[in-house]
Amino acid sequence: MTGLGAQGRRRLTRRSLPSTPISDATVATANASSQPSVVTALYLRTKALHAEAERTGIIRSLLRGEASRAGYVLLLRNLLPAYRAMEHGLERHRESPGIALLSRYQLERTLAIESDLAALCGERWSEEIPLLAAGEIYAKRVAHAADGDGMRLIAHTYTRYLGDLSGGRILQRLLARSLELLPAELTFYDFPHFSDLDVLKADYRKALDEAAELAPDPQSVVEEGAIAFSMNIDLSCAVEAAVPHKSATVAAVE
Fold first, then answer.
1. Could you tell me the Gene Ontology terms of the biological process aspect for this record (predicted)?
2. I need a labelling partner for 67 at 20 to 30 A (CA). Which of 136, 174, 181, 233 fits?
3. Helix/strand/coil (H, E, C) string of 64-82?
4. Tens of pLDDT along 196-250?
5. For 212, what's the count of Cα atoms within 13 Å in the CB-facing half-sphere?
6. DSSP class of residue 93?
7. Binding site residues, as ranges?
8. 97: left (phi > 0), else alpha (psi -120 to 50), else beta?
């Protein structure tokens, strides 16, 4: 297994933030104004949690180029229910003010994750790769966020989609290098309908702000973001604990 190297890990850490890094001047301006944007508030509220996420569990191993194939497969399988719940909620509220601004981008990852799992493990992946308790809890929380007007889903799209757009391309290259994964096993990181992912990320970040402006309780969106990061940390640690480090095998991946 080939490591990424210190410089590459630092680059990925910077770019895997789920929003464009915010300068001290921007933060100072936000503090001086009456109310920062919700995306800025999400960034500030989850900054420490993001740093913790990168230092713990399977995510730490992935960023260091030290994760096993089995560990990556288990993570992907346990992220899938959260994406399903999020995308079901976005579809359910697709005509609602705010959520409609996000749904129009059609960034759905569920089919790509399922395709990757089939390529990695075979068609019986859903029977052979376990769903951990932490994965179930995360998915249930996302489903709960879709209740009511669904506006708390903004926090989960911030955490997941903006994170995928920020660090996904580098992580895709890292996984191809360290785990020798093939393009057909990494479609989760592809957004084939968009020619410029940097433009997409900037546009989606703006859409998140515009959607959040319509939320009756913007602070609930910010706090939901902190919950989302905490649950990602719990899932990352659960995956790392479930994968043997010596043999690093899951039966379906052998």
1. heme oxidation
2. 136
3. CCCCCHHHHHHHHHHHHHH
4. 999 999 999 999 999 999 999 999 999 999 999 999 999 999 999 999 865 434 3
5. 29
6. T
7. 50, 158, 205
8. beta
User: Rounded distance, CA 248 to CA 180, Å?
Assistant: 15
Q: Both tokens of residue 6?
A: 């210190």
Q: Which residues contact 81 (CB under 8 A, 6 or more apart)?
A: 131, 135, 136, 138, 139
pLDDT of residue 34: 59
Task: Express each pLDDT in 125-179 by its tens digit.
Answer: 999 999 999 999 999 999 999 999 999 999 999 999 999 998 888 899 999 999 9
* Residues contributing to the annotated binding site for heme b: 50, 158, 205
Buried b / exposed e over 88-111, threshold 16 CB at 10 Å, is ebbeebeebebbebbbebebbbbe
Exposed (0-12), middle (13-18) or buried (19+): which is 21, by Cβ within 10 Å? Answer: exposed
Asked if the model's pLDDT at residue 26 lies above 70, the reply is no
Structure tokens given for 71? 């560990």
